Automatic annotation (TrEMBL):
Main location: secreted
Name of the protein this chain belongs to: Receptor L-domain domain-containing protein
Signal peptide (residue range): 1-19
TM annotation in the entry: none
Keywords, ordered alphabetically: Cell wall, Glycoprotein, Secreted, Signal
Keyword Transport found: no
Subcellular location: Secreted, Cell wall
Secreted listed as a keyword: yes
Length: 392
């Protein structure tokens, strides 16, 4: 039979555990609200911090949050400090916190999603304990220079856009992106390194980059859109299949574009306004294009020996000397005269823009927006509903 002293110690311990476990949603509007949950170690529910006068959000004892942490429209908030947080089973969402500078999560190793959007002073974000499991990473409109400690092998979606000081993006362990990958409009010297990436489930958009390295990328389940970059070459020589269109345009320094292994494009293949483009390395593995082929530039040679099927036209225009008869003769397919346009020594204006009648894009030939970038697609229905409820 338990002695009184033993029973008392057991009750005290149970009380302490209960005191550290918090199970409800919390809407924080002042420091008093923070004080109410400051002793919570494990929480089941959502925490919402919106339109407060807080300068610091400090939760010193929180180790596990089974819910979402939403932080929005806090005009004076400079830092979010979660020194003991190990696991966040929901979303960490930071929206429109005008002076927020620091997100401090030194112990965090699991996070379902991170969305930091329109926090123009945010510059300190990192995960020293190494974040190896995350479904959504979205960083838009910040001063972050580099993201450290994010090392998943698989991720749902990545969007890193409009971060003017971001100069390096590296995901050395990333093998698969299940949905979309979008990198655009960061620092003008920004480089992207994806040495292990083999598959992207939906769309890929790369813009405003100085260097791109994705040497093992094999397939993209949506479209590939590469535009307005500053690199001189891009080599995607392991890429064999793109489910929708490939669009390469407005890359002012691009000289070499290589897709040596590409076999199938589910939409159109469109290349234009790459004013320095001198070489399109052979497309001799390309067998099927389910749309138009529209390639324009200043190249002297082009070969597509294995091309057997195209659902649209073949339009080739170069400002340089080009042997159009030889290109057509070596095609496996024999295009009808109304499906074939090949011109050499054309005016520069004809390679820097597409006429309305020549627009190419989706599976039926019409220009389509790059798919898969909406927050709803990236998050899934559950995450979207949570954020909608918070925002409104």
């Amino acid at each position: 039979m338990m002695s009184y002293s033993a029973w008392w110690l057991f009750a005290l311990a149970a009380s302490a555990v209960s005191a550290n476990d918090c199970s409800q949603d919390y809407d924080i509007i002042s420091q008093d609200g923070i004080n109410d949950i400051s002793q919570c170690a494990r929480m089941s529910g959502n925490i919402r911090v919106a339109s407060t006068n807080l300068t610091t959000l400090h939760l010193p004892n929180l180790t596990v949050l089974r819910g979402d942490l939403f932080i929005k429209d806090n005009d004076y908030l400079k830092s979010v400090e979660l020194p003991r947080l190990l696991r966040l089973n929901g979303a960490l969402a930071l929206f429109k916190n005008g002076v927020l500078e620091t997100l401090d999560t030194p112990a965090l190793t699991y996070l379902r999603s991170l969305e930091a959007v329109d926090n123009p002073q945010l510059k300190n974000v990192g995960f020293p304990a190494e974040l190896r499991d995350i479904d959504l990473l979205r960083l838009v409109g910040s001063r972050v220079i580099k993201l450290g400690g994010i090392k998943p092998q698989g991720v749902g979606s990545i969007e890193i856009v409009d971060n003017p000081e971001m100069d390096t993006i590296s995901f050395n362990h990333l093998v698969k992106v299940h949905s979309s990958l979008r990198i655009a409009n960061n620092h003008e010297t920004c480089s992207l390194h994806l040495p292990s990436l083999t598959n992207i489930g939906r769309g890929l958009e790369l813009a405003h980059l100085r260097i791109v390295k994705a040497p093992r990328l094999e397939s993209v389940g949506g479209g590939v859109h590469v535009h307005d970059n500053w690199f001189e070459e891009i080599e995607l020589d392991d890429l064999t299949e793109v489910e929708e269109s490939v669009r390469l345009h407005n890359n002012s320094q691009l000289r070499v574009f290589s897709l040596r292994a590409l076999e199938r494009v589910g939409g159109s293949l469109v290349v234009y306004n790459n004013t320095q483009l001198e070489s399109i390395a052979d497309l001799d593995e390309l067998e099927t294009v389910n749309g138009d082929i529209n390639i324009r530039g200043s190249f002297r040679t082009l070969s597509m020996l294995q091309l057997e099927q195209t659902a649209g036209r073949i339009i080739i225009k170069s400002t340089e000397r080009l042997d159009c008869k030889d290109i057509k003769k070596n095609l496996a397919i024999k295009p009808a005269s109304d499906k074939w346009v090949c011109q050499e020594e054309v005016d520069r204006n004809e390679v820097i823009a597409l006429a309305e009648s020549d627009q190419s894009g989706g599976k039926n030939g019409a220009v389509q927006p790059t798919p898969g970038w909406s927050m709803g697609i990236a998050l899934g229905v559950t995450g979207l509903m949570s954020i909608v409820q918070f925002l409104f």
